[in-house]
Every structure is written in structure tokens, then in C-alpha cells.
Specification:
The chain contains 15 helices and 17 strands. By secondary structure, it is of the alpha/beta class. It folds into three domains: 193 residues, 3-Layer(bba) Sandwich (FAD/NAD(P)-binding domain); 114 residues, no CATH class; 95 residues, Alpha-Beta Complex (Polyamine Oxidase, Chain A, domain 2). It has a five-stranded parallel sheet with strand order 10-2-1-11-17, with helices on one face. A five-stranded antiparallel sheet has the order 13-14-15-12-16. Strands 5-9-6 form a three-stranded antiparallel sheet. A hairpin with a 5-residue loop joins strand 14 and strand 15. Helix 1 packs parallel to helix 10, helix 4 runs antiparallel to helix 5 and helix 12 packs antiparallel against helix 13. The structure holds flavin-adenine dinucleotide.
């Protein structure tokens, strides 16, 4: 882009845009972040509910989120304080299923974890260990586009381990039903999450609202390094930033794919990418908050519901607060989304009682949040755009750009940091 100043405009203050802005700010590059909403964080943001700082949706991070942990530290957010690290443990109290990865060196932790899982017949556990072994032997590269269901069929994954381990992992990580989800992306997640260093498989549970986990610290860091954040400022056209009055050396579109497509349509060089992004489909995520009297205790910080609607339950505390707040998560399209808010919350209250095997008092309050476009539907062979566009100085960042992963915080952060490196290299 010609006639420029040295600054970088970042369109979108989600985790991708903020990660990019933090790394550029640290290198002394002036940034200006334009965010359409009144707050930062995008699809991972704080929401105030009944006087509690909660989130637009329950999030779970993994030890494998190395760039997220790095960018948190760089911006001054302490992961040790803000995230509770637990060895991976999948518990279904109702079904008597429990898989826990012991604190042993990799890959022993995985083998022992699978073989000692409670609630799975020995044949299924052996088959699961063989499945991972086969993926590892093939370098986690699949020869052809397959769905996760197809991959599990091919490796004879059946029964409890399929229903309570692989399928829920697919839903949680890819936000796409196993019948539609990409087996290759699932294999990438297993490679980095389960089969890497032992700490990679740890669960990192936010101990504060998502704003405090990263966006608040990022905003402080950017401000302290001479950058600027403009909230409630929607960018309608990239030409606004490159024409008179706003000449930036680089512009990073760090929005979700739908919104990126709108901005990419404006120039002939980027219309093909806009058309590609127009073909994306999306999956919803629902979070149902139920607030119980504080004396109600849950058996673990996270566990599986008996179903048929609910998937995972998280204990949100708040520690020392007047309520025990429970977050029930519902990933991807499903029957849950045909329920209205009232009946969905009532059904999950019922499932929670059945899972725990005891009666609970009626919740003091309940709140349902549906994010309709929570994640792109992660299908086999889904094409991803490169970070560098054909328009000089125009870049793409966002969860959909990091081609190895599904829509996650880590893919958003990795793509933002990647664009920051490219811009620094281009200077
Ligand atoms: C309910 C829910 C649960 C999830 N659970 C998990 C989880 O457990 N673990 C996990 O890793 N991931 C999870 N995810 C996915 C994760 O939140 C996203 O992948 C990630 O936040 C995407 O970040 P992003 O920066 O790429 O995009 P976004 O968060 O969409 O940020 C884009 C920003 O751009 C702004 N914007 C858009 N258009 C414009 C414009 N024209 N001008 C200015 N600003 C604009 C938007 O307002 C937004 O703030 C979940 C998502 C949801 C919704």
C-alpha cells in the first residue's frame, strides 16, 4: 500500500487480532485495533450475568496451547494464576466411565491412561491403544479425506470408548459432529493434544472470566506500547484504512470468516478468497448457566452429562461466592438447538440430577447463551486461505486461517502471531 505510515491497522479485537497486536507492539510497531463491538474478545469474551462476570461460552484450553500461553505471559496475564492445570480426566459419573492420563512421561501416559480406563471392556481399550499406535505410525497423516466417523469405523472403534471418548473429543475439539468432521484435523488434534509431551494433554480451566484471561491484559500492553484500540468502530471498507486519512503500511483482517468475506469482496484481487469463505458452514455452541445454592458441590471441575441433550458440565464457582454456578456445554448442531431456552435449561437441570444420582434444588437463576456462528464447520478437505492476500499489505488472521486446527483459541492466536512475524520480516 503506497504513501504509508509505519503503522498497522488490525480489523477485529478477538484473540487473533489482539495476539497480532501484542507481538507487533512488543517489536515497537504502532498498531491501531478497530473493534466493531463495545468490548474486546470476540467469540471468547466476558459477559455479565446476574452480577457475575461469566463468558459468552464456556471455554477449555489445553496444555498444547503453547502460543496462547506465550502471548498471555507476554501481555502480563499469568497463566499459572488464571488457568487451573489438571491432568486430562474424562469422567462420566452416570455411566461409571473414567479415563485419566497419569503424570508419566509421554507416550506412556497415554498408553497407561487408555489401558486403565474404567468402564471400558478390555477389548475396546486395546483397540483404542492400537488406533493411536496406527495413527502415530502413519505420522498422523491420512491418505484421503475422511470423516471422523469413517476413521473410527476403519479402526474398529466401538462401544463405550467410541461413545464416551473419541466422539465427545471430536465434538469438543472440532465443534462438528463425527459424521461430518474432518478426520485429518481430528488426527492433528490427537497428535498435539494427546500424543505430544505429557503436559500438552493437560486441561487448562479458566479461573477468571475470559476477558481477564487475555483481552484485558492485551489492551493494557498495547496501550503501554503506544498502540490504540478503537471500540465500537466497524470497518466498512479496507479502502478506509489505506486511502486519504488512514494510510497504514499493513492491514490485518482479523475477523471471523463471514465478516472477512464482506471486506474481501471489495477488491478484484481478493474476490476469490471471499467466494471461498462464503462457502463455509457454521456450527452453534450453547452454554446453559444454572446457579444453585452455594452448599451444592460437584464431584469434579468438569464431567460428562448422561445426555441425551447435555455434553459437558463445568463448575464455575465462583470461589467464595454465594452460588455454585454450573456451565453446561452443547457443541455443534443437535436436538438441543430445537429447544427453547426455558425447556433447555429445565432439561439440563434434570440431566444434572440424573448424572449425580440425587435431587437438586431448583436453580436460583438460569441463563442460556447460544452462539449461532461459534465455529466454522470443520469438514474433510475444507480449503483454508493463506495469511498473505494478493492485495499488497493486506493480511488475514483468525482461527480459520491456521490450517492444521479447527476453530480454537490456539488457532486464532497462532494465526495472529504468524501474521505479526510476516509483517516484521517484511519491514
Ligand atoms: C461458545 C463458544 C465456545 C468455544 N469453546 C472453545 C473452547 O473451549 N476452546 C477453544 O479453544 N475454542 C473455543 N471456541 C472457539 C474460539 O472462541 C474461537 O475460535 C476464537 O475466539 C476465534 O477468535 P478470532 O479472533 O479468530 O475471531 P473472533 O473472536 O470472531 O474475533 C473477530 C472480531 O472481529 C470483530 N469484527 C468483525 N467484523 C468487524 C469489522 N468490520 N470491523 C471491526 N471489527 C470487526 C468482531 O466483533 C470480533 O470481536 C469457542 C467459541 C464459542 C463461540
Amino acid at each position: 500500500m503506497s504513501g504509508v505510515n509505519a503503522g498497522v491497522a488490525i480489523v477485529g479485537g478477538g484473540w487473533a487480532g489482539l495476539a497480532c497486536a501484542v507481538d507487533l507492539s512488543a517489536a515497537g510497531v504502532p498498531v491501531r485495533v478497530f473493534e466493531a463491538a463495545r468490548q474486546l474478545g470476540g467469540r471468547a469474551r466476558r459477559v455479565d450475568i446476574a452480577g457475575h462476570a461469566l463468558d459468552n461460552g464456556q471455554h477449555l484450553l489445553l496444555g498444547a496451547y503453547r502460543e496462547t500461553l506465550r502471548i498471555m505471559r507476554r501481555s502480563g496475564a499469568d497463566p499459572e494464576r488464571l488457568l487451573r492445570r489438571l491432568p486430562l480426566e474424562l469422567v462420566y459419573p452416570h455411566q461409571g466411565f473414567r479415563l485419566r492420563l497419569p503424570r508419566l512421561p509421554a507416550p506412556l501416559h497415554l498408553a497407561i491412561g487408555l489401558l486403565t480406563a474404567r468402564g471400558g471392556p478390555p477389548g475396546e481399550k486395546l483397540a483404542a491403544a492400537r488406533f493411536i499406535h496406527a495413527l502415530r505410525a502413519g505420522g498422523y497423516r491420512l491418505a484421503e479425506p475422511l470423516t471422523v466417523a469413517g476413521l473410527l469405523d476403519r479402526h474398529r472403534q466401538r462401544g463405550n470408548l467410541r461413545r464416551l471418548l473419541w466422539e465427545p473429543l471430536c465434538l469438543a475439539a472440532l465443534n462438528t459432529a463425527p459424521e461430518h468432521a474432518s478426520a485429518q484435523i481430528f488426527a492433528n488434534v490427537l497428535r498435539d493434544g494427546l500424543d505430544g509431551a505429557r503436559e500438552n494433554s493437560d486441561l487448562l480451566l479458566p479461573q477468571a472470566d475470559l476477558g481477564r484471561v487475555f483481552p484485558d491484559a492485551a489492551a493494557r500492553f498495547i496501550g503501554a506500547h503506544g498502540g490504540e484500540i478503537r471500540l465500537s468502530t466497524r470497518v466498512g471498507q479496507i479502502a478506509q484504512l489505506t486511502g486519504n486519512g488512514g494510510k497504514f503500511a499493513h492491514v490485518v483482517i482479523a475477523t471471523a470468516p463471514r465478516q472477512a468475506a464482506e471486506l474481501l469482496r471489495e477488491a478484484p484481487e481478493t474476490r476469490a478468497i471471499a467466494a471461498l469463505l462464503d462457502s463455509y458452514r457454521y456450527e452453534p455452541v450453547g452454554t446453559v448457566y444454572l446457579a444453585y445454592p452455594e452448599e451444592i458441590r460437584l464431584p469434579s471441575p468438569m464431567f460428562g452429562l448422561c445426555g441425551p441433550l447435555g455434553q459437558w458440565v463445568f463448575d464455575r464457582g465462583p470461589p467464595g461466592g454465594a452460588s455454585t454456578i454450573v456451565a453446561c456445554v452443547l457443541s455443534a448442531q443437535g436436538v438441543w438447538d430445537t429447544h427453547d431456552n426455558e425447556s433447555l435449561a429445565a432439561a439440563l437441570h434434570g440431566e444434572l440430577q440424573q448424572t449425580l444420582g440425587r435431587a437438586l434444588p431448583d436453580p436460583d437463576w438460569r441463563r442460556v447463551i447460544r452462539e449461532r456462528h461459534a465455529a466454522f464447520s470443520c469438514r474433510p478437505g475444507l480449503p483454508r486461505p493463506p495469511a498473505k492476500t494478493a492485495r499488497p499489505g493486506l493480511w488475514l488472521a483468525g482461527d480459520y486461517v491456521y490450517a492444521d486446527y479447527p476453530a480454537t483459541l490456539e488457532s486464532a492466536v497462532r494465526s495472529g502471531c504468524h501474521v505479526a512475524r510476516e509483517i516484521l520480516d517484511a519491514r
